[in-house]
Design goal:
Helices cover 50% and strands 12% of the residues. It is α/β, with parallel strands linked by helices. The strands form 6 sheets. It has a 7-stranded mixed β-sheet with strand order 11-12-10-13-16-9-17, with helices on both faces. Strands 3-2-6-7-1-8 form a 6-stranded parallel β-sheet, with helices on both faces. The two termini are 53 Å apart.
């Protein structure tokens, strides 16, 4: 048993994955069994990270099988040899066996996201926790919340208690000069249901009913009236005290105190304590020096009493504000339980579980089961755990893992490796708790063994100038930005070592202040555009450049600007399927054919056809000619532009075939089109899960389209535009951080739970409050919450800046505004002010200068510039209108006919090909079948000729090379226990494969669908599919590569 577990303190670009892979391989290579990977669980944060980890492990194993060719300059091999005492031969032989075993048992190669692992546990406990075994997982929950809210509001007038609560809420909003529409507020508060940070409190108030909240409201109303009356009376008494002493308002410095008291008396409680009045009263600074001595004496004599009254009033005013704050959330919170009830009904109807519920389900219903029982249920006992990106792990997620890890660590030959970086913790808003990592690093451990922190200090990502800049910048700003000494020390001790990759460039672009929003955006965008042009001149490709932004709205504006400048971009917006004109045209056709009276759909069709067919007819004339036509005449009119579409075929077809027919009839895509293919996949998936009514499908698509994206094609030469959050874990040669003006204390709709004594608040122990500056004065508890909240904002936002500035490899460009005020002081709450302060500290600041350079830009080696050329495959669809095949399910009537013979021949060919890896196997396979009586001499010669033609075919021979790894008809068990069995998979490298499927009859559209499904599964497993190949032997050997 080990006496410690490893924590890798992994700053940006520090080779974290290399170290995790090394530790993983050390376990595999030193274990006596070749399948010890089955007892290793590796958990990370994103699917992309999962695929990278899997690829790196397979790739590294493959390299270790070829030690003699790459022994030099192989740091992984050298590290493994040093740390395990294994020699080259032992490592090579073991790697070969392990690699083969993993590829054969890939489903047991368990590298997973935390959500997928949690789902695995839930599925195996479905019976015990009374879940349907065939439930579906819903990732996007906001649509369901909005549906729940809409259904709740629709019940107004039916449930009278609920109706009254909704009406009162709307009335309260109107009384506060806000919109009476309550749907937005209810949608907003409903998000608390799915946020781990609020689970405990939401569970507590879930037992409360509308009457409980109504009683609380009356109680708070009573307290408000009472304390408000006390405030007014005491302010009045204080003014009377002043005037009874013969004093006037003008006797006080700037009349500040009397003005303050008069505001209080008038119940104007806002912005009362933003000045220095309290400090002046406390220190007796109440009047000007020129005031008459007798009046000075009078004021001095009552100054202590005035200060006492001031502080009492302040305390009571903030108590009043505390009550007001409670009221602002009381009504929507009272309705939250009912929204949750509607949500539960929808989930049950649709047989779904929200992914955001996984951790809560495990924590509430499974975690306390004996660890061995959990292992038994999931079918494997893990001995070794690897947890990556630990700083983003939530409290629930970690608590759910602890029993399993603790059980494993109590046995021999077990281990735990954790990797994380507190400086990259940017997901607190969805449950991430970086303090857990800090706790473990300080040996405040959850286990009986201690942690050993391994600092990965070298940055292998960035060039020297970028590393030096970030080291210096974050050390500097940590001196003044953090309230917490702990957070300050995190950045004080974050100096990274250079990897001797010299050079690099950092540019801080500080643009002049512009009041007009539009003009400011234009200025930012023009500077950004110039940086892109400069990068292209230095031989960087568009794909080398990434623009980082804080919000999606900023990304959209930049994308729109660059599109107008003819700069190709890839962003979350441009990857949406709905951004494809062709996809929207298909939807318009489906709508029009189902509901021909929809003029909008007809207009969308006309506009698209006129634009895409480059018609010479004036557009208005074309619209006028078609817009009034009925469905039959409308499509008949299209014959004049050589488009032939029969809507009767569409209405008689399945959903998938209907869409294929639209693509075929309107010639939407002759070349590979990711948007259309993704749309077809979406339709195929919907058809498999639902009765595929076209109108229902359209409704489903409309509700999902804002979240349906294609995978970004790696070969695309385009500038990437993404949020900082999405860039985490990625790197780019050139990074441009635009709009670097974030105020670290500014946030939207922030809320905090305030613990109270239940007896004083109708049994409520926690109340939801809006977080604002008042919180500081809500007693000691409020002050503590306020300080913690601000400290978290400081850390989270500096972490966000750290992530943004550590993505760059060669060049880092920062664009921000000049945040210096009229006094010449920079705003240190903003990133831009921090940059200016840093420049001043280094004596680099010049008021009229806009760009500050660190290092020098260099030209990228021209030989490394990636060509924009890419392989474009034909887009293959196979509507039944082409092949004219009708399938008769009554196949028994063909028994004993040529069809049965053809089927037998097809089965025999598949059997032969399943046993052949290369041409070296052919003779032996045929001889065995001959000896078994399966083949006579004639058939043996026939298949010898046919198979020889296949494996020596000019397009196929490379796939039957005996030096390549291949698998024939190997079953792959999916996570839903569904098996697939591709005819042949050929590995051209450690992660690049080709899929071959044999057909002995005419190729049908379903054959393409089948092989596309294989591709989808294998891509999800981390492979890159180079080619999909159908080998058809109906007449002669026909090879279709797509």
């Amino acid at each position: 048993m080990k006496h410690f577990y490893n924590i890798y303190n992994a700053s940006a670009g520090s080779g974290k994955t290399f170290n995790l892979v090394k530790e993983y391989l050390k376990i595999l290579l030193t274990d006596n069994q070749i399948d010890s990977y089955k007892n290793i669980l590796s958990i990370t944060f994103t699917n992309k990270a999962v695929n990278e980890m899997k690829s790196r492990i397979i790739e590294s194993l493959n390299q270790l099988t070829k030690i003699e060719t790459n022994e030099k300059n192989n740091p992984l091999l050298n590290s493994i040899k040093k740390e395990t005492d294994l020699n080259n031969e032992e490592i090579q032989l073991k790697s070969i066996s392990i690699l083969k075993s993993i590829l054969i048992n890939y489903a047991s190669f368990d590298v997973s996201t935390i959500d997928k692992f949690t789902q695995k546990i839930i599925r195996n406990f479905a019976y015990e926790i009374k879940l349907p075994v065939n439930y579906e997982v819903e990732i996007k929950a906001n649509d369901l919340l909005e549906e729940s809210t809409a259904k709740l509001i629709s019940r107004a007038g039916v449930d009278m208690k609920l109706t009254k609560a909704l009406i009162n809420f709307s009335f309260e909003k109107s009384s506060n000069d806000k919109s009476w529409d309550i749907e937005y507020d209810l949608n907003n508060i409903s998000k608390l249901l799915l946020n781990e940070n609020h689970f405990d409190q939401i569970s507590e108030i879930g037992v409360k009913n509308l009457e409980d909240f109504e009683i609380l409201k009356k109680q708070i109303d009573h307290n408000k009236i009472k304390i408000q009356s006390e405030i007014v009376n005491e302010a009045t008494d204080c003014l009377n005290l002043i005037y009874s002493k013969g004093l006037d308002d003008s006797d006080f410095l700037s009349q500040a105190l009397p003005k303050h008291l008069k505001k209080v008396k008038s119940k104007k409680f806002n912005a009362l304590y933003s000045s220095q009045l309290e400090s002046k009263i406390k220190n007796g600074i109440l009047y000007k020096k020129a005031l008459a001595d007798d009046k000075k004496s009078i004021i001095d004599s009552i100054s202590d009493e005035l200060y006492s009254i001031f502080t009492v009033l302040k305390k009571k005013i903030f108590k009043f504000k505390f009550y007001e704050n409670i009221q602002s959330n009381n009504r929507p919170l009272s309705i939250l339980k009912h929204i949750n009830s509607e949500l539960e009904i929808i989930k049950k109807e649709k047989n779904i579980i929200l992914i955001s519920e996984f951790n809560k389900i495990v924590n509430n219903q499974i975690k306390n089961q004996p660890a061995l029982f959990i292992y038994e249920k999931i079918g494997v006992k893990y001995k070794h755990f690897f947890i990556d990106e630990f700083q983003d792990t939530s409290k629930l997620q970690w608590n759910n893992l602890i029993p399993l890890i603790e059980n494993s660590l109590s046995s021999e030959n077990s281990s735990l490796s954790i990797s994380g970086d507190i400086k990259q913790a940017i997901y607190r808003w969805r449950g991430g708790e970086p303090e857990q990592l800090l706790k473990l690093c300080n040996n405040n451990t959850d286990f009986f063994i201690k942690s050993r922190v391994v600092d990965l200090e070298t940055n292998y990502r960035s060039r020297d100038e970028i590393i030096k800049f970030n080291n210096s910048l974050f050390t500097h700003i940590s001196q003044f930005v953090f309230t917490s000494d702990i957070h300050k020390n995190i950045y004080n001790n974050c100096q990274q070592e250079s990897n001797n990759n010299l050079g690099g460039y950092v540019g801080i672009n500080i643009l002049k202040n512009i009041d007009s929003t539009d003009e400011k955006e234009d200025t930012y965008n023009l500077r950004l555009y110039q940086i892109i042009l400069d990068s292209l001149k230095n031989n960087y490709a568009l794909r080398d450049i990434c623009i980082l932004v804080r919000t999606n709205d900023q990304g959209i504006k930049i994308s729109d600007f660059l599109n107008k400048k003819d700069i190709d971009i890839i962003s979350s917006e441009t990857l949406l399927i709905s951004k494809s004109e062709e996809v929207e045209f298909i939807i318009a056709i489906l709508k029009f054919c189902s509901q021909p009276k929809l003029t909008n759909s007809k207009l969308d069709i006309i506009n698209y056809l006129h634009r895409k067919n480059n018609l010479k007819t004036y557009k208005h004339t074309f619209i006028k000619r078609l817009i009034t036509k009925n469905k039959k005449d409308f499509f008949k009119e299209l014959h004049k532009i050589n488009l032939y579409f029969d809507y009767n075929i569409l209405t008689k077809s399945s959903l998938y075939e209907a869409i294929e027919y639209v693509i075929y009839a309107f010639k939407l895509s002759n070349k590979s089109n990711n948007y259309i293919q993704s749309f077809l996949d979406f339709a195929f998936d919907y058809s498999n899960k639902n009765f595929a009514n076209i109108l229902d499908f359209i409704s489903h698509y409309e509700s999902k389209k804002d979240n349906l994206s294609i995978v970004s094609p790696e070969e695309s030469d385009a500038v990437k535009v993404m949020t900082i959050h999405k860039s985490k874990g990625l790197e780019f040669p050139v990074v441009i951080y635009a709009y670097a003006d974030i105020d670290i204390y500014k946030e939207k709709d922030a809320k905090e739970w305030y613990p109270v004594i239940g007896d004083e608040f109708n049994g409520f122990n926690n109340l939801l409050l809006n977080f604002n500056k008042d919180f500081e004065f809500f007693g000691e508890v409020g002050n503590s919450i306020y300080e913690t909240h601000l400290m978290n904002l400081e850390l989270d936002n500096i972490n966000l800046l750290y992530v943004a500035l550590t993505r760059a490899q060669d060049e880092l460009h920062i664009i921000c505004s000049n945040s210096i005020n009229n006094k010449g002081e920079e705003n240190l709450k903003k990133y831009s002010g921090m940059f200016i302060n840093y420049l001043k500290k280094n004596n680099l600041w010049e008021e009229n200068k806009e760009t500050f350079d660190f290092g020098e830009k260099i030209k990228k080696n021209i030989s490394n510039k990636i060509s924009n050329a890419s392989l474009i495959d034909d887009f293959i669809i196979n509507p039944k209108e082409i092949h004219k095949i009708n399938i008769d399910a009554k196949s028994a009537k063909f028994w004993g006919t040529s069809l049965e013979k053809a089927t037998n021949n097809g089965n025999l060919l598949h059997e032969i090909m399943s046993k052949i890896s290369s041409n070296n196997d052919l003779e032996k396979v045929l001889q065995n079948l001959y000896d078994d009586g399966r083949l006579d001499k004639e058939l043996k010669e026939k298949y010898c000729s046919l198979v020889t033609e296949i494996i020596n075919h000019e397009k196929l021979s490379c796939y039957y090379n005996p030096d390549l790894i291949s698998f024939n008809e190997k079953e792959i068990i999916l996570k839903n226990n569904e098996p697939i069995r591709p005819d042949r998979i050929v590995f051209s490298s450690e992660k690049e494969i080709s899929i071959i499927d044999y057909k002995t009859g005419k190729v049908k559209k379903g054959d393409y669908t089948q092989i596309n499904y294989y591709e989808k599964v294998l891509v999800e497993m981390g492979y890159i599919v180079q080619n999909k190949i159908i080998v058809n032997t109906l007449n002669n050997v026909e090879v279709i590569i797509f």
